[in-house]
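Need tokens for this chain, all 266 residues.
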Amino acid sequence: MRAVRSPSSRGPQHAVRGRALPQGQPGSPNAVPLIPGVWTTRPGLPGPRAGSLGSVRDLHARVLQAEREVLLPLLDRTLESDFDRTTVCEGWSVRDIVAHCSAVLTALVTGGRPSFTVGDNQRDVEQRRSWPLSDLLAELKQAHDLAAGSAQVEPVVLGLWIHGSDIRDALSIPNAYAAPALSDALALLVEASIAKGIPPVDVTLTDAADRRLESAQVCLGEPSAEPVGWLRTDTPGLFRIVARRRLELVERDIVGVVVEDLRMFH
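Here are the structure tokens for all 266 residues:
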């Protein structure tokens, strides 16, 4: 299969096992890994190939801790009436997303159910709608306390980070889908794209310099496979695309795939 290349403005290319990469980005001779310990360099090249169990676990822990440090103070200072604001999650308010996140964390750290269907999630939310807001926030804080450093919550950490972004978005917080722990969240996104079988797509982040990311390149899907597409967007746009959050706000150039191919969350 022929590699899909971006417009010529990307500059000189270095092909590594089918993946076309701009000079100076991961995979090129002078590359600097974006996140140590995850798929940031191409197979056969110097540098870390894949993360050890410890390094990947550290990523989850840092993202969860950063989300806690941003989200919980935000909720504490949010007016109770603002918890009724609608969100990008159809049928759910800010309060409902808080309830969902609290229920998921609580279930995992207390040995509850291992999977979460749409029906299960909706029942959790409806069960908590009659709770006083103070009780709901107390449950969320306790769940975060118990989840700190727990391997049981790793499968849902990135989803919780995205739901935190959904809350920030509903509350009109700037850069809702670009904080906190952005670099670590991007690393988890790469890992998730491999696990979920997302088509191999080379992504160029247009705001990498402004956000002080070490690289503008993110490679979704199997890192050793030839790319079938290319996407150019900013960091919030990438997370909106993979989570299908208000795509009309995303400025993007996409070749070889459609945005639905990149959806990882619901």
